[in-house]
Amino acid sequence: MSALAPHVAAYLRERLPVELGASQHTCETYSHALRLWFEFTASRHSVSPCDLQLENLDAATVAAFCEHLELARGNTERTRNARLAAIKAFMRFIEYRVPAMLDHVRRIRAIPRKRTDEVLVGYLDRPQVEAILNAPILETRSGIRDRAMMHLCLAAGLRVSELVTLPSSAVTLHAEASVHVMGKGRRERALPLWKEAARDLRAWRDVRGSSVAHEFFLNARDGPMTRSGFEYVLRKHVARAAVSCPSLVGKKVSPHVLRHTCAMTVLQATGDIRKVSLWLGHAGLNTTQIYLRADPTEKLSVVEAMIPPKLRRGRFKASDELIHILTGK
């Protein structure tokens, strides 16, 4: 075993899941980023990954790896920044375990992230939502499940990881239907449900059966639904809905677009960004600000409150001989 392996094992098995309470998806993402980095570093130093030493993990190699991600692998700036963030987090862990690496770590942490374009979030309008929810065939068990999953995402704004790991005990379908979600950062939130969403969830509960899996949503083999499984289900129904809703043709609808749609619905209904933040389980308002930029009704209220300046119509008159010639008069 190399000198590096015990630190990697401790970070992925103890630091992230136990001490920081990171989700399985986060652990897998960090593990993938570190694997790519170690493979690149080993190739750069002409050694096998198991022979890497801590001293090989220097700032120059990290900078070269970031460049490799964009040029050789074709990753975007956002992906490059995410990989760099995973490396910095791991090196902060190394800093405490191996104080002699302090100088290396500081140089790596000084590598800046690239600025990225802040694009408007994509979301669905009401006709598109209705078309997607009406796409599943409700005469089948899978159709009932698919509609319940999509409706819950639209009503509660669940992340796909929150949806597929949602336990049956977290869903309350009595008079006041609600769902309890353990979200990102171990932040728990309780959300009421629309009557229509609760009706779809009850329909799925009635046909779910007695599976040994504690997750509420199951796949065709009565095992837990996976991220890729729900992404496939969503793509299938979006394609079917596009037949009756032409605006969906060519539109990229991911599970996170359903979450964005829920956020925009809450914002337009309440006009309060704080309630949107609480509904989605954000750690602070900074993350929720993106929905203010995407909501045109917020700008319309500002325009209506402003008094436009009074302008007089005028006509340009050339006062210079050269400009007079260029005007053609």
Describe the 3D structure.
By secondary structure, this protein is mainly alpha-helical. It folds into two domains: 5-109; 126-304, Intergrase catalytic core (hpI Integrase, Chain A, Orthogonal Bundle), CATH 1.10.443.10. It contains 16 helices and three strands. It has helices spanning 5-19, 24-44, 59-71, 77-97, 102-109, 126-133, 141-156, 160-164, 195-208, 227-241, 255-270, 273-280, 285-288, 290-294, 296-305, 321-326; strands spanning 171-172, 178-182, 188-192. A hairpin with a 5-residue loop joins strand 2 (178-182) and strand 3 (188-192). The model has no long low-confidence stretch (mean pLDDT 87).
CATH A-level architecture of the largest domain: Orthogonal Bundle
Q: How would a textbook summarize the main sheet?
A: 3 strands, antiparallel
Strand order of the largest sheet: 1-2-3
Count of helical stretches: 16
Number of domains: 2
Gross morphology is: flat
N-to-C order of helices and strands:
HHHHHHHHEEEHHHHHHHH
Would you give the CATH topology of the largest domain? hpI Integrase, Chain A
Arithmetic mean pLDDT: 87
For the CA atoms, what is the radius of gyration? 26 Å
Q: Which stretches of 5+ consecutive residues score pLDDT under 50? A: none
Bin the helical content: 55-70%
CATH superfamily of the largest domain: Intergrase catalytic core
Give the total of beta strands: 3
Strand content range: under 5%
Structural class: mainly alpha
Distance between the ends: 86 Å
Per CATH, the class of the largest domain reads: Mainly Alpha
